[in-house]
Specification:
The chain is mainly α and 172 residues long. 72% of the residues lie in helices and 0% in strands. The protein contains six helices and no strands. Helix 1 packs antiparallel against helix 4, helix 2 runs antiparallel to helix 3 and helix 3 packs antiparallel against helix 4. The longest helix is centred in the first third of the chain and has 30 residues. The chain binds fe (ii) ion (FE2).
């Protein structure tokens, strides 16, 4: 039987987007603190892995191939999301602002998805038009993703550093 073709970089990142959208919808419909906490933790894990593989592999590959402004905004938006992710990780469903934080994070991610997936003007379309090797990038990100998911499941999701923020420091 032929093996399933591996997703290229854009297919892999889009699949991540669909997965977290689904988790956010499930969180919104969830009743009960245990269920909410489990879903929020899964969201934080998925997003921490997603932002890391984008920052370590995909965005550096886009450097010089797409406008610097677009990439700089993506890095800053990631760092904004990381602050909320660390708040959600450290808190719990009985916190007054817990649901609000998850909701605001979902809105930030909705914006992130739009900026990356928009036709023609989106980061993915521009990276594709610039001729990046999406198969090779997809392979590298799939490997990195597998490694990170195993690591985070074993020892918890680390607080991600926010290198574009010069006056707010979280993570390492
Ligand atoms: Fe993304």
């Amino acid at each position: 039987m032929p093996s399933k073709p591996k997703p290229d970089a854009i297919a892999l990142l889009k699949a991540d987007h669909r997965k977290v959208e689904d988790l956010f919808a499930k969180f919104e419909a969830a009743k009960g603190e245990g269920k909410k906490k489990a879903l929020a933790e899964q969201i934080c894990l998925e997003l921490t892995v997603h932002t890391k593989i984008e920052e370590d592999v995909f965005y550096p590959a886009c450097d010089g191939a797409v406008e610097e402004d677009l990439l700089n905004e993506a890095y800053v938006e990631h760092d904004g999301a990381k602050v909320l992710i660390s708040e959600i990780e450290a808190g719990g469903p009985d916190d007054k602002f817990y649901d609000a934080k998850v909701k605001v994070l979902s809105e930030m991610i909705k914006h992130h998805v739009k900026e990356e997936e928009a036709r023609v003007e989106g980061l993915f379309a521009k990276a594709r038009a610039a001729g990046l090797d999406m198969d090779a990038l997809g392979d590298r990100m799939a490997d990195e993703k597998k490694r990170l998911v195993a690591e985070y499941k074993a020892s918890g999701v680390p607080t991600a550093a926010t290198p574009t923020f010069q006056h707010t420091h979280i993570g390492v």
